Amino acid sequence: MTNKLTLTEQEELFAKDCKLINLKYEYNGYTGDERWAIITELSVKELWEKYPLVIERYSPFVHLSIAQGEVIDDANRNEDKYAKRSSRTLDCYGYDDEMSSQFHKELAIMFDDPFERAEEERLEQEREELRQCEIRKARIALSMLQPLQREEKRIQKDKCDGIKTEARYTTIDELFDLWANMKRGLKNNTFENYKYMYNTFVRPVIGSKRISTLKKSDIKKYYNYLVDERNLKPSTIDNIHTVLHQVLQIAVDDDFIRNNPSDNVLRELKKAHCFQSEKRRALTKLEQELFLNFMKTHPVYEHWYPVFSYLSC
């Protein structure tokens, strides 16, 4: 759905929902590709849907939850507290200018103040805690960068290939319902058989699976399950494959996925399990005569006799 808000309107709403962090300003020495971090309760998909003009300006970015943002705020408050405490320990002469002892000889006297030493130890402990906090922040940021970069590359590739974004959430069941509504040209018995096969064998096992995550190996595992655990005959699996392949082909035709993951899987299954077609033979002349006599004299089936008699001619 297209967002009709202007850039100014999106910026105002974005400022209420999100908080920005300039990573290169906040973390000295940061060299990542992402310049901004966005702290928000919204997902990445919701950000793109609500504020596409704003998000485009800050992409690529690191997406942080509210809980992660609170960790960063706590670290910043500790750093500010440390800076204020440090400023209160400086005296009017300024020990850091390296010239105080030249003009104030009394400062050159060595004196080991236990209170000052304790304060220095306390400050050193705070500095170490702050350093450890910075390390944890960096690890959190780095742990989030890799999956985000992979996701960004996948989205860019999908855009280049024309793959629709809604495919990420479409399930096999939803595609089957679409196929069933559009299917024409089948006899009613055939169509009902297809629906029975899907609802009985496909829907309970893999129907809820998203097609964006469906792989050829998933279809292989499913067919092996039908053979090994459900003990289905090859003809039944053929019918299931016929329906499933057509359903997944809709996803290919509608640019939800690139390839049909069920292509050639049934052929490979038959080779792996050494399926053989059952040979059929015609009735002998004697067998035909026995069958027709049975039909002719049976009170239940005698009305079928003319049909089979005609076929045997």
Give an overview of the whole structure.
With 313 residues, the protein is mostly helical. It has 3 domains: 7-161, no CATH class; 172-273, Orthogonal Bundle (DNA polymerase, domain 1); 281-313, no CATH class. Helices cover 63% and strands 4% of the residues. The chain contains 14 helices and 3 strands. Strands 1-2-3 form a 3-stranded mixed beta sheet.
Short description:
The chain has 313 residues and is mainly α.
Summary tags:
313 residues, mainly alpha, DNA polymerase, domain 1, 3 domains, three-stranded mixed sheet, 63% helix
Sheet of most strands: 3 strands, mixed
Protein structure class: mainly alpha
Shape: elongated
Mean residue pLDDT = 80
Number of strands: 3
- How many domains? 3
Strand arrangement, largest sheet? 1-2-3
Number of helices: 14
What low-confidence regions span 5 or more consecutive residues with pLDDT below 50?
90-97
Radius of gyration of CA atoms, rounded to a whole number = 37 Å
**How far apart are the first and last residues' alpha carbons, in Å?**
66 Å
In terms of quaternary structure, what is this?
single chain
What helical percentage do the residues reach? 55-70%
Beta strand %:
under 5%
- SSE pattern: HEHEHHEHHHHHHHHHH
Ordered list of secondary-structure elements with their pairings:
Blueprint: H1 7-17, E1 19-22, H2 23-26, E2 36-39, H3 44-50, H4 52-58, E3 61-64, H5 66-88, H6 100-103, H7 114-161, H8 172-182, H9 188-206, H10 216-228, H11 234-253, H12 265-273, H13 285-297, H14 305-312
